[in-house]
Specification:
about 375 residues; alpha/beta; Rossmann fold; 2 domains; six-stranded parallel sheet; 12 strands; globular
Length: about 375
């Protein structure tokens, strides 16, 4: 089968690592697999808000790449073009799309407003107000917020999302929540482990070891975790915070302020983002993984990895998280008292892990998706 995988990058992000792993696994099963993503040079690329959603140069490159392809599997279109599903379908390909986040309906990707608060759902007026700093860039944010709302770019983006829905033959959803939130029917496809995670060794004696593994941005709730941890009895636990510090609202200031706060709390250690290969070591040096996200996570890979290692899990009762941690402790998102109470209960339990829960393999997942492709293509052939 000739398959073209499309992603906004092939780097270290969860969706990017998944797309690359799936492409490699399907190639190893004897398929002809190609990748399509941003052009390194990006000469002539449109700039500004609309440039991140529509790009004639990208569309021309893609039309050439999609020629004679049987299946186009889309993962993310940020920085590419919302017209790619239409172009792929017009080229005669089966078009499938894995839903990794909410970017198709929300330009911020997380269904949160500029302040990081959860959004009830996109609308023309709400999005125009929320995205004013982006729509009026490079004007200062304070100035942009006082200017009249610009609805035309939002309307075009909404039309692009409608085109994606119209030209995609099938959506794949790692969680039921993401499909419901986006309002589309989807085939359930839980994400596999990107690599095998061996069970953690027996925990040595000592204080409970808590672990946060993710980006240092407000929507990951790491500041909620820090406040909850600071209220634990002195010396009862340690907290390791590991993750990159991407810009938030165009600046690295938030992460800098957070790092300074974390350094002042006894028992907290802060480490920069680790390579995918080092994740196993991080998990094996912890007893409890804490995922305090305040945005509606879809299917965080770290939850499956922690379960495979045998870690206990404390996480926000939000988004697709409850689907992944049936044996975990769920707390209301953003609540410092509730999270602190859950951590106190974990401290009382002491060290010790759960029986490892192995995740699915990428090889089996790749074969499952190939079967979906074949079934969908057969159904299309029968319908003409």
């Amino acid at each position: 089968m000739h398959i073209l995988h499309v992603s906004h990058g092939w780097g270290q992000g969860g969706s990017q690592l998944y797309a690359a792993g799936l492409a490699n696994a399907q190639a190893s099963l004897g398929n002809r697999v190609q990748r399509f993503g941003p052009d390194g040079g990006r000469r002539g690329r449109r700039t500004g808000f609309e440039g991140g959603h529509f790009d004639a140069g990208v569309e021309r490159r893609f039309a050439e790449a999609a020629r004679d392809v049987e299946v186009v599997h889309l993962h993310h279109l940020s920085g590419l073009s919302l017209e790619l599903p239409r172009i792929a379908r017009e080229a005669g390909a089966l078009v499938v799309f894995t839903l990794h986040d909410y970017w198709l309906a929300c330009a911020r990707g997380q269904l949160v407003n500029e302040a990081g608060d959860r959004c009830p759902g996109p609308s023309t007026a709400r999005c125009a107000a929320c995205l004013a700093p982006d729509l009026y860039a490079p004007l200062p944010r304070a100035v942009a917020k006082r200017l009249p709302s610009r609805s035309a770019p939002i309307l075009r983006r909404e039309a692009g999302w409608a085109s994606v829905r119209a030209h995609t033959h099938a959506f794949f959803a790692p969680s039921r929540h993401v499909a419901a939130r986006l309002g589309v029917e989807a085939i359930a496809t839980p994400l596999p482990l990107l690599r095998q995670i061996p069970a953690a060794p027996p925990a040595p004696a000592g204080v409970l070891r808590l672990l946060f593994l993710g980006s240092l941005i407000p929507t990951k709730g790491v500041q909620v975790l820090l406040d909850a941890f600071a209220g634990l009895p002195a010396g009862s636990a340690s907290l390791r915070i590991t993750g990159p510090s991407p810009p938030w609202r165009g600046s690295g200031r938030w992460a800098e302020v957070f790092a300074a706060r974390a350094a002042a709390v006894p028992g907290v250690s802060l480490a920069a983002g680790v390579s995918p290969e080092a994740v196993v070591a991080e998990l094996h040096e912890a007893d409890v993984l804490v995922v305090p996200s305040t945005w509606e996570e879809n299917a965080p890979l770290v939850l499956a990895e922690a379960a495979a290692a045998g870690l206990r899990i404390v996480a926000s009762d939000l988004g697709g998280i409850p689907e992944l941690v049936p044996e975990g402790v769920l707390v209301p998102p953003g609540s410092v008292p509730d999270l602190r109470a859950a951590l106190v209960a974990e401290v009382r339990r002491g060290r010790g892990r759960l029986p490892p829960r192995p995740g699915g393999s990428m090889a089996a997942h790749a074969a499952e998706l190939l079967a979906h492709y074949a079934h969908l293509r057969s159904r299309l052939a029968r319908s003409g």
